[in-house]
Amino acid sequence: MGAVDPTYPLFTVASLISSVMLLMVLASNTVRQSWNLGLTLLCFWLFLGSIANAIDSIVWSDNYDVKLYVWCDIDSRLELIVYFVKPMATLIISRRLYLIVSLQSVEPPSIAAKRWDLAVEWGVGLVIPLLIAGPIYYINQSARFEIIEGFGCADTSYVSILEVLIEESWGVLPPLVSVIFYYPKLVRTYLRQRKDVDRFLRSNSSVSHSNYLRILAIATIDILLTLPIGIVNITMIIVAALAPPKDFPFYPGWEYLHADDWEPGTASYADMTADGGVADLAQIYFTRWTSPVLAFTIFALFGVTSEARGAYWRILCSVGGRFGWKPTAPTRKGQNSLGEIEFGAAPRATEGADLEIGSHTPSFFRIEAVPAATDMNFDEKVHREDSSGDTDSQAVRRSKLAIGESWDAFERSDADSADLGKEIKEPCGDTTREHSSSGEREDVADVDSARSIDENVGSGEPTAV
Q: What is the C-alpha to C-alpha distance for residues 113 and 116, in angstroms, rounded to an integer?
């Protein structure tokens, strides 16, 4: 027997891809230590919900058999948590963005305010969804769980006035608070103080202008998805309850709902499409597809940035290193990596120009490597020029003294830097280069430098320092 859902396995594949994308976003945030509580909670619960939806759509693709009792006990409550976390995360994100714009500060102004913010965000993002999926749901729970053909496990909340007030209303209230209170203030404050806000976002390293706009975009999309769903859901519940035979009590009673024969319920795909059940089926489709849509949007906004790609590379290096694989850091096309950094003696001068670091000329600060006879000839020529009354000799003498003083300071700093280490490791630890002290090549370069000075002095030309 084939799958009853005509779109199968589209939803299954989308859910699996969504779970992988959300896991990558969570991993990159962990590596970068970049946390936005509302976004993190949304990604975490969407990740778990996407995996559960994929499993359900596979196991019950062509049947509604009652099985996997423990799994359905957990899954039916997880579905409620994911459903209510979406509007809660929207409220947390919009509130945080408003505080950043209004206070122009990422951190609260005081320790007490910081504790209050943490209590509000954790309470809204975690405590309230757990309470809804736990004791509040148990008050209105009419069966252990329900199996819907083609979709899998589902909750069994009995429709009543109390159920709408204490359970369904949580799908509408948080996005309404965001739209009524925070979003108008957020937009108004940003437009009035746009220059100041942009300046603050550019100067603050913990929240960039692009990240701010990304978080604002995901909050807006979440509101556009969750608020209509909540309003339509409550409207359909009330309309269906007021239709004949008008079974819409305030609360049917604890004993009525929690009978001894608390067996799971079932619903076939054919029953849902018959007798005007197309609206209910459309509601199920729309509700379930919001998770993949949000997941793809989150990954498009936060999972392909340069910071996220860098985090993926670090994770790859760490995992590959445990298995002996040492990948080489990628370089952009058309660009060469910088040469190795060497501590100690300077390398031999190269002729011509380097495309990356420009031309390189011999340094005058390596005179100590020149033989003593060269220094003696230098002193004799300076003495002869000085005795002959040539005015250029004074400039040469001052140049020589300046070179000597500069070289003494350089020699002291060079001796300190030479002890920093002999090895420099490249990214991911793929290669190790050993560096040696100055040798014959440096001596040859130094002799050339000294000879050039010698020739300038002999010709009477001023020597540039």
A: 5
Burial class (CB in 10 A: 0-12, 13-18, 19+), 125: buried
For position 440, what pLDDT does the model report? Answer: 46
Residue 344 located in a structural domain: no
Pairwise CA distance, residues 86 & 327, whole Å: 39
Domain boundary among 276, 303, 322: 322
Assess contact for 106 and 129: CB atoms under 8 A. Answer: no
Burial label for 178, CB within 10 Å (0-12, 13-18, 19+), is buried
| Alpha-carbon Rg for the chain in angstroms | 36
Judging by DSSP bridges, how do beta strands 432-434 and 265-267 pair with one another? unpaired
Task: Give 137-163 pLDDT, tens digit per residue.
Answer: 999 999 999 999 999 999 999 989 999
- The three-state DSSP-derived secondary structure of 147-170 is EECCCEEECCECCCHHHHHHCHHH
The rounded distance, in Å, linking the Cα atoms of 222 and 232 is 15
Q: Are residues 105 and 216 in the same domain?
A: yes
Using the CB atoms, write b or e for 127-160: b if 16+ within 10 Å.
Answer: ebbeebbeebbebbbbbebbbbbbbbbbbbbbbb
The CA distances from residue 332 to 305, 318, 335, 336, 425, in Å, are: 16, 22, 6, 8, 20
Residues 373 and 302 in one domain: no
pLDDT of residue 367: 37
Let me know how long the chain is.
465
**Residue 408 belongs to what domain range?**
353-459
Q: Is the pLDDT of residue 66 over 90?
A: yes
Q: Are 451 and 369 in contact (CB under 8 A)?
A: no
Q: Count how many domains the chain has.
A: 2
Reported as half-sphere exposure (CB side, CA atoms, 13 A), residue 30 has a value of 11
Q: What is the mean pLDDT of the chain?
A: 73
Q: What residue has token string 């031999």?
A: 348
Residue finishing a domain among 265, 300, 322: 322
Q: Are 303 and 28 in contact (CB under 8 A)?
A: yes
pLDDT tens digits, residue range 358-379? Answer: 333 333 333 344 444 444 454 4
